[in-house]
Write a structure and sequence with these properties.
Number of strands: 5
CATH superfamily: Metal-dependent hydrolases
Helix content: 40-55%
Number of helices: 8
Radius of gyration: 16 Å
Strand content: 5-15%
Distance between the termini: 23 Å
CATH architecture: Alpha-Beta Barrel
CATH topology: TIM Barrel
Structural class: mainly alpha
Strand order of the largest sheet: 1-2-3
CATH class: Alpha Beta
Shape: globular
Order of helices and strands: HEHEHHEHHHHEE
Number of domains: 1
């Protein structure tokens, strides 16, 4: 599913969906252009990076132009850190490199982009370092439709799969 399809889906379901995009950090200027277009013309409200699956460290300087575009719009960026479970039980881990999930190098990103609110630290750390992110999350979860979705035992979105109570 493309970032544009996700943005369209979220726009059609704006009472419960917040569109986040994911862009390969190696896309360079094309990635920057895509990030700006998604935010300015398609309502994307944040970005997600999964270094283990994108095969790149989140603190790699090649990603900085995209981070700059995100920071200009003061939007959050979520970084998957730690072990993803991907490649478990496969020969050679299925080619998945766990080193890209190390959280400590991400401190450079947090320092270099204080306006790009990242989401990889513990709740207490987030609250202390990024109060805007906590306020944003509280504003989103205060929406009645989001509260209903969070309270539901089964959260199914056509084409996007199912969230279960175990995913909370």
């Amino acid at each position: 599913m493309s970032n544009y399809e996700i943005a369209d889906y979220a726009a059609a379901n704006s009472d419960i969906c917040i569109p986040f995009a994911s862009i390969d950090p190696r896309k360079g200027r094309l990635g920057v252009r895509e990030a700006r277009d998604l935010v300015e013309n398609h309502g994307v409200r944040g970005f997600k990076f999964h270094g283990i699956m994108q095969d790149i460290g989140g603190a790699d300087r090649i990603a900085y132009p995209i981070y700059e575009a995100i920071a200009e719009h003061k939007l959050p960026a979520i970084f998957h850190t730690g072990h993803s479970g991907m490649g478990t039980g496969m020969r050679g881990g299925g080619g998945v490199r766990l080193k890209w999930g190390q959280p400590m190098p991400m401190d450079d990103v947090a320092v270099d982009f204080p306006d790009m609110v990242d989401r990889m630290f513990s709740e207490l750390e987030v609250a202390a370092r990024y109060p805007r992110q906590v306020a944003w999350r509280e504003a989103m979860t205060a929406r009645p439709a989001v509260q209903r979705a969070l309270a539901a035992e089964d959260r199914t979105a056509p084409g996007l799969g199912t969230w279960t109570v175990h995913a909370r």
